[in-house]
Amino acid sequence: MFSLSSHALCVRASTAQVPAQIPAQHILKAVKIADSSAGLTAPHPNAGCVIAHGPRVVGEGFLYAQGTKSAEVQAVERARDLSKGATAYLNLEPGDCHGDDSALKALTQANLSKVIIGLRHPLTHLRGKAIEALRAEGITVEVLGEDLIEGEQLQEVTRACQLINAPLLCRAVQRLPYSVLKYAMTLDGKIAANTGHAAWVSSSESRRRVFATRGRSDAVIVGGNTVRRDNPRLTTRQDGGHLPVRIVMSRCMTLPPDANLWNVANAPTIVMTQRGARREFQAQLVARGVEVVEFDFLTPKAVMDYCFDRGFLSVMWECGGTLSAPAIASGVIHKVIAFVAPKIIGGVLAPSPVGELGMVEMTQALNLSDVAFEQTGPDMLITGYLQPVPALYPSVSAAVELALADYLTPSTKPPAVITFYKTWDLYGAFSNFSPHPITVPDEDGNDVVWNSVEHYYQGQKFRGVQDSLAIERVLKIQVAASPEEAARLGRSFGRERPDLLCPDWDEKKLDVMYKALRLKFTSYEALKELLLSTAGSVIVEASPNDLFWGAGRTGAGQNNLGILLMKLRTELIKESEGNQSVKRQADSAAVTA
């Protein structure tokens, strides 16, 4: 993910000559705070909101994770009565999940004078919807680059809004995860000695930066050479927070049997290989909890296509030159982060960070854009883009996008198979991570609010167990800051203390989930309508690694979450038909009378 502080964005609001009608500092502040959850949760759309009267800020907020309270709601709550007549500045058009209109309600009820938006939502099924809804409520909405088009500094502010959501833009426009290539090299361009020894090229300060950048990623990729030579762990070296998936690319599977990456107690590992390579060793890894994915032909582009399908937004490549060269050549690398240590090691055979690209003249060299420099300890950090972050051009593509939006709108005839996974997907509201709290009475009849279905489900694993640790864990899950954290708390404790799981949990969990789903879809009319609109379609939870609730990567999973949603849909249709029948009878009786 992109960070203003750590990646030195070249936007200097303090010295900018900004047109009076565009208080750029407020949008830049929205951009900055939008990045506040980086490393703490999985990558997601970065949204920040600042509410201000002129230069005076009265409220602000940011989206912490998928399924949490929106930036706009937080900003309005903090501004309170001071929001009347103020202007709201958003780096991204509201829209995290279909059926969640809390952001729009907050902005509408805040009595604002204006809303200024830095970037329309890149995802087609969300793009422009919030802007239209706000304008329909009589609120003046201005979008940078459309309604506000004057001033050189406006371009810099727009660029900042694009860069902070570069992963989302890449996913929407290029249908690829945002990929960052990281390496550390000596002053003479070596990443290791000619023996392969590489600990440590860079300083401890630089390594801490690497750990933080890993936490901003959905996945970290290395090749087989790195596993054999360095035996890395690829963790973030922090307690709590987001842990990316570790991916090993190896065509021949000649990997060490006892690598650190095969320990998946705290972070998952995927080995990606050619079909049929060392099947016995594959089975050994699977038995240890490592996921193995076979490709007909393993390439960086094939891996990125897979990561896109898996819902990844941001991927970090920490591979050696043998893998980095084909990754660059295939066009999947967007950004380069290079740490240059003030060391010289020499050696003709010492490896360099990028292998053979087939270039024979310096004029063929790939030039980076938006280059920035920063010192980290004794090292120099150089960052830049190998390919531009895609931009949205509404004046050119508005008609096409409108047609696509109409085609993709959930109210149209649904496809035969509907899949969902991330909350920002077209049918992402079906996810247990969606931002829809449910209220459930406890044993004493008191209403208890759970911030998501995931919170409730994970809490019920240990509910009623008379043990202080179980009671404590339920409370922690209930107040978890995000569904992601609730899931992590429930799953990890279930593995550590299976003896504290609710008795007969395996027999109860389907009923627990169905109860939660029914409460969710009957409490929110928009969700109920969305579910009913899928009548005739098969609903599939597209989790690639959950074979119980989801369909799994190959479709061999049980898809129990999808099955429960279809069961609920059938019941809601019958109830709706029953209510209509009762109404017809009542109307008939009234006419007869």
Automatic annotation (TrEMBL):
Keyword Disulfide bond attributed: no
GO molecular function list: 5-amino-6-(5-phosphoribosylamino)uracil reductase activity; diaminohydroxyphosphoribosylaminopyrimidine deaminase activity; hydrolase activity, hydrolyzing N-glycosyl compounds; NADP binding
Keyword Oxidoreductase among UniProt keywords: yes
One biological process term in Gene Ontology: response to high light intensity
EC top class named in words: oxidoreductase
Keyword annotations of the record: Multifunctional enzyme, NADP, Oxidoreductase
Pathway assignment: Cofactor biosynthesis; riboflavin biosynthesis; 5-amino-6-(D-ribitylamino)uracil from GTP: step 3/4
EC code: 1.1.1.193
UniProt domain CMP/dCMP-type deaminase: residue ranges: 21-142
Any one Gene Ontology cellular component term annotated for this protein: chloroplast
Protein name: 5-amino-6-(5-phosphoribosylamino)uracil reductase
